Amino acid sequence: MAADGTPGEWRTLEDTTTKRTIKTGKVTNVEFWHVDQSLQVWVEGKRVAYAEYDWSPALRIEHTLDRPAEELLRAVRVSNPLADESMYPQPSVRWELEGSPVTLHRVRLERDLFYRPGVYNPGFARDGQPSLGTHPSQPNILGPDQFFVCGDNSPNSLDGRLWDTPDAWVREQIDPTIGVVPRDLLIGKAFFVYFPSFHKDKKIPVPDVGRMRFIW
Questions:
Q1: Four-residue CA torsion sign, 197, 183, 159, 141
Q2: Rounded to whole angstroms, how far apart are CA atoms 206 and 194?
Q3: What is the SS3 assignment for 52?
Q4: What gap in Å lies between CA 118 and CA 115, rounded to an integer?
Q5: Is the pTM of this model over 0.70?
Q6: Computed from CA positions of residues 66, 70, 75, 80, in that sequence, does the dihedral angle turn out positive or negative?
Q7: CA 89, CA 73: separation in Å to the nearest integer?
Q8: Which member of 11, 75, 77, 146 has the greatest number of CB atoms within 10 A?
């Protein structure tokens, strides 16, 4: 991976030899993961290489947008410049393989779940400020009994990123922190996946039966 964002400068995070050999003339399932600031290689369902890196929020912004983070942080008190989709470059993926000829079949690219930046709604205690956990000025550092709840439909979820000041009773008796759910308020357990719906043009959402399942 790139060492500091400078083109042409790279550093090795992991160099390993795996016992799981890729046999000539045989189809082998290989997965490359880049998620949660880690790089991973999986062969036939077994992880064979793993390495982590630790970038600060400002450094992640700089690597993503190819511009100094300071330029974007100046407007932090009035808006969330990271919510402007037009400034994000088109993502790309590149593999380099060496040692012997390789033919790729059924190549598939899956995007990791992410949560879009935004700003608090008008009239809220943080009116106009960047939403929680989506900007370096609004980090979300959880305590041992706090939970950050996010909806799976990021563009349209009024979730923990955008919650206002907690109810007065919760604020006085349990936890005054904005945007979190205290453990004492968790009274149920998720056991079934019902959405998402694949009929987005209907007023009444119809569940995708093929993706409905129990969670044990």
A1: negative
A2: 10
A3: strand
A4: 9
A5: no
A6: positive
A7: 19
A8: 146
pLDDT tens digits, one per residue of 45-95: 889 889 888 888 788 888 777 777 777 766 555 577 777 778 777 777 777
CA dist., res. 140 & res. 180, Å (int): 9
First to last CA, the chain: 37
Q: Which residues contact 73 (CB under 8 A, 6 or more apart)?
A: 58, 136, 137
How many Cβ atoms from other residues are within 10 Å of residue 62's Cβ?
19
Burial class for 182, CB neighbours closer than 10 Å (0-12, 13-18, 19+): middle
- In contact, 53 and 12? CB cutoff 8 Å: no
C-alpha span between 72 and 83 (Å, rounded): 11
Separation of CA 48 from chain center: 23
